[in-house]
Amino acid sequence: MNSKLVIGISSRALFDLSDSHKIFENEGIEAYRKYQIENENEILEPGDAFNLVTKILNINDFYKSNDRIEVILLSRNTADTGLRVFNSIEAHKLDITRAVFCGGESPYKYVKAFGVDLFLSSSKDDVKMAIENNVPSARIISSKASKKIKVDDTLKIAFDGDSVIFSDESEKVFEKEGLKAFLDNERKKKSMLKAGPFKSFLVELNKLQSELDFGTSPIRTALVTARSAPSHKRVIKTLRKWGVRIDESLFLGGMNKAEFLKSFEADIFFDDQQKNIKDASAKVTSAHVPFGIKNKN
């Protein structure tokens, strides 16, 4: 029997709630509540993670049970103000039936109960708490990329390496001792890289890919890293040891990742460094992973 891949998503990541969020920030909760109720039949436009969620849910079409993947709404709204969100889910024909409305509290505390494999939110605090509780999680960054529904049905997910798929052990060496020490460390190290916060999610994606390995897969993954030769060897050997397949591996040696992600047509890109995410978000939907030495401050 197949396990279920569970994605937790916040309402602000799924839909464009920028107008109502401004009201909340400028006028407070009661004005926000009134605005949402008055507009609850106004259908929300797609948000930054809408394409990703649509493509993820469409993968269920390959399964007879039609429930291999589930997306759950985890929202800071109340059920009252969240009615507009559910009306929009129905209008956009998204197969999302489970939800938690936390009335201003963080919904991260429910990710374990739902068995969430990936939590995506616009809230920095919610994401950080989920990461600290060992749930792969990232903050969706407002993107300049088009939010129009893509014609291509293939789900394309791109990951940075260190502090995302792998731990930050190598980044610590680079940060403290520089590039030469980092390269020397990679040459000398015989051990595999340690797992990072997104290893478990990558493994779950690999399970889906192996189940759907009948010609053209509906899922493609990419590793997009600043590493270059010879530091690429340890990465390849670690993935091989884990039994994990990455479809495309880009060792860019410090080059800007944005154009490469655009060429890959990533539906989402995960990186631990704010600068990389800022650059990438101009081209593709991107999400910040608040993990590792680059995020200690």
Overall strand count:
10
Q: What structural class do you assign from the helix and strand content?
A: alpha/beta
Number of helices: 13
The SSE string, one letter per element, is EHHHHEHEHEHEEHHHEHEHEHE
Oligomer: single chain
Going by CATH, the homologous superfamily of the largest domain would be HAD superfamily/HAD-like
Which regions are unreliable across 5 or more consecutive residues at pLDDT < 50? none
Characterize the structure shown.
This protein is of the alpha/beta class and 297 residues long. It folds into two domains: 5-140, HAD superfamily/HAD-like (Rossmann fold, 3-Layer(aba) Sandwich), CATH 3.40.50; 155-295, HAD superfamily/HAD-like (Rossmann fold, 3-Layer(aba) Sandwich), CATH 3.40.50.1000. The protein contains 13 helices and ten strands. A ten-stranded mixed β-sheet has the order 3-2-1-4-5-10-9-6-7-8. The longest helix has 13 residues, at 79-91.
